[in-house]
């Protein structure tokens, strides 16, 4: 990958990491028209351009432009790999055939995103000149322009949102979240961690995240809101936070499952940290309260919203280890075999990372009553149950969600499994703690130096993961949210061989109640308006597609070098065709259609949605084949 001509290298790459994700979302969500402009010279490995037009450049969504002016252009991105194109929809610009781009990924792009200007000022590097030469082939003769490298997501969003007439306050808020993403991304690049090894703890792997979500433009955002103090890079150690002790009056606490027994050791550690009183004396004194550990950063929200809590002094605190999500934490020496999900009123990627009463109500019932009856291969999948929860009982769920917690199984912290390495699947495809490389932890540690090795790794990964997550979907109408943060891969520490998967976090599962009842006899126990409930089986299937196929497989296949040649997707297609019965309703959606419903990150932000999803048709990568522009 070429190094940008920018003395602030990490700043450049941080901007690119966020902005490339914004470009990808604007394209796949059809928020702007995007076309592939082929390069005739393919200098510096640039095969062509992703040309994003402003939404005002066409009257209707499906209109195909016949000419492009400088004023029509939102941004130009040079490409090193061919995006997914639609050769049936081609804009002919100055006799250059430019197919519509259906989907573009950050890994298709060279690390340069350009703003077009009319004053002729250019960034000085060879990629800029190659980009300018290719762009000039589709513009009207005599157009004079310059290209400035490093166009960032905040300014691109501002221009796009202005064109789209996004509400001013919302426009500013989303811009701030994009800015936060860039700031925290640069901080991560500036402060690399030691690379994890086969002997590293799961926590070391959880904290090895460099860029995070592969397609979400707020992938590194950490945006707090009053009364919480503003979060800036380095202002708080999010990997090693403190938790504080709070008591909720029993009359104000909703407890589900075995929360109080499971939390005893954690609460005792917090009580004893104060040092001044006997633990049993304090328990007796506050016997009419339910104790809960609170993330230290969350205290201002708790103090503002709840006036009957006992907030213990600051000395009643201990350090914990944050997992990849930042709000879930572990202390294996105190809670072996368990982890704790906490409230954190910070926008991380898409939403405030609080824990809603919908989640605290649903988890234990689903864990104890439904999970044991689901159809799945227990030799390849471990489902970590949510064994106990507590939430402040308040009629407004937007208030209650600020004081709640979940205790769940975590076999990765159980000494019985010390010979196995558990790591979040998303970390496999993370870079090796630097931005200017294509090497990932997977390619670094697994020695996958031949295509045969990479194919064999992928075969086992796809086989095991489909055997893990497909049966509950096919048989029971249940889709786990199997993206790379919720899914752990389990490897033999000695051989490096994949042994299976672990799934955690039930906040985003989808369940078709009628199918579940028919196949297990279980009635789904949820609060009214729970987003877990799926009205149709297709809702269940599209969650599985987004989390497993789009979020996991797409990135894994790309970093293994098995995307453009179609080998990786053909492997997925073949295994699916063996596992999905041809008469099952899933078959046509996954195996026949050219398009599937794709989750729309930016449209959801614009509509201020989190618990409700927006989907748009996106290319079905299960059926991906090697491609080329129609006139190539």
Automatic annotation (TrEMBL):
Limits of the Aerobactin siderophore biosynthesis IucA/IucC-like C-terminal domain: 457-579
Record domain Aerobactin siderophore biosynthesis IucA/IucC N-terminal: where: 202-425
One Pfam entry name: FhuF
InterPro entries for this protein: Aerobactin_biosyn_IucA/IucC_N, IucA/IucC-like_C, LucA/IucC-like
Extent of the signal sequence: none
Recorded superkingdom: Eukaryota
Name of the protein described by the UniProt record: IucC family-domain-containing protein
């Amino acid at each position: 990958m070429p190094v940008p001509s920018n003395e602030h290298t990490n700043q450049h790459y941080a901007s690119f990491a966020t902005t490339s994700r914004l470009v990808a979302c604007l394209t796949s969500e059809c928020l702007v028209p995007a076309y592939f402009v082929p390069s005739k010279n393919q200098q510096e490995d640039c095969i062509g351009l992703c040309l994003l037009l402003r939404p005002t450049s066409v009257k209707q969504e499906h209109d195909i432009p016949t000419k492009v002016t400088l004023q029509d252009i939102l941004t130009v991105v040079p490409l090193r790999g061919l995006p997914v194109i639609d050769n049936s929809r081609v804009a002919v610009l100055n006799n250059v055939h430019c197919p519509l781009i259906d989907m573009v990924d950050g890994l298709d792009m060279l690390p340069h995103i350009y703003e077009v200007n009319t004053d002729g000022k250019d960034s000085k590097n060879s990629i800029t000149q190659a980009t300018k030469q290719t762009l000039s082939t589709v513009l009207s003769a005599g157009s004079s322009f310059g290209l400035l490298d490093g166009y960032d997501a905040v300014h691109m969003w501002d221009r796009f949102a202005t064109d789209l007439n996004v509400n001013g306050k919302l426009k500013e808020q989303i811009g701030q979240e994009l800015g936060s993403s860039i700031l925290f991304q640069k901080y991560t690049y500036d402060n690399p961690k030691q690379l994890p090894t086969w002997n590293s703890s799961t926590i070391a792997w959880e904290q090895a995240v460099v860029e995070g979500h592969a397609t979400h433009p707020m992938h590194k955002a950490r945006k707090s809101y009053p009364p919480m103090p503003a979060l800036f890079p380095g202002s708080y150690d999010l990997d090693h936070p403190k938790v504080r002790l709070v008591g909720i009056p029993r009359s104000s606490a909703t407890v589900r499952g075995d929360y109080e027994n499971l939390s005893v050791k954690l609460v005792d550690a917090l009580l004893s940290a104060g040092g001044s009183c006997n633990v049993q004396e304090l328990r007796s004194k506050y016997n009419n309260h339910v104790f809960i550990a609170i993330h230290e950063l969350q205290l201002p929200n708790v103090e503002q919203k709840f006036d009957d809590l006992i907030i213990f002094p600051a000395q009643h605190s201990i350090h914990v280890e944050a997992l990849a999500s930042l709000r879930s934490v572990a202390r294996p020496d105190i809670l072996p075999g368990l982890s704790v999900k906490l409230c954190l009123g910070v926008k991380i990627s898409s939403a405030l990372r609080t824990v809603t009463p919908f989640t605290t109500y649903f988890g234990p019932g689903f864990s104890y009553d439904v999970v044991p009856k689901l159809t799945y291969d227990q030799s390849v999948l471990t489902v970590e149950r949510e064994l106990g929860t507590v939430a402040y009982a308040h009629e407004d769920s937007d208030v209650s969600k600020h004081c709640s917690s979940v205790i769940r199984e975590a076999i990765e912290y159980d000494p019985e499994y010390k010979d196995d390495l558990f790591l979040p699947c998303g970390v496999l495809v993370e870079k090796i703690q630097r931005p200017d490389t294509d090497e990932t932890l997977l390619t670094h540690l697994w020695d996958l130096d031949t295509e045969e090795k990479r194919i064999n790794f992928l075969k086992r990964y796809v086989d095991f993961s489909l055997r893990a997550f497909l049966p509950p979907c096919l048989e029971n109408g249940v889709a786990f949210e199997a993206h790379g943060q919720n899914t752990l891969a389990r490897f033999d520490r000695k051989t490096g061989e994949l042994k299976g998967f672990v799934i955690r976090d039930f906040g985003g599962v989808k369940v078709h109640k009628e199918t579940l009842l028919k196949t297990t006899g279980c009635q789904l126990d949820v609060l009214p308006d729970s987003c877990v409930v799926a009205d149709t089986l297709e809702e269940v299937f599209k969650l599985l597609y987004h989390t497993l196929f789009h979020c996991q497989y797409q990135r894994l296949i790309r970093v293994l070098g098995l995307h453009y040649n179609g080998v990786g997707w053909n492997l997925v297609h073949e295994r699916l065709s063996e596992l999905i019965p041809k008469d099952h309703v899933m078959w046509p959606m996954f195996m026949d259609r050219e398009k599937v419903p794709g989750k729309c990150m930016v449209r959801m932000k614009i509509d201020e949605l989190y618990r409700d999803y927006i989907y748009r048709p996106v290319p079905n990568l299960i059926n991906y084949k090697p491609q080329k522009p129609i006139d190539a």
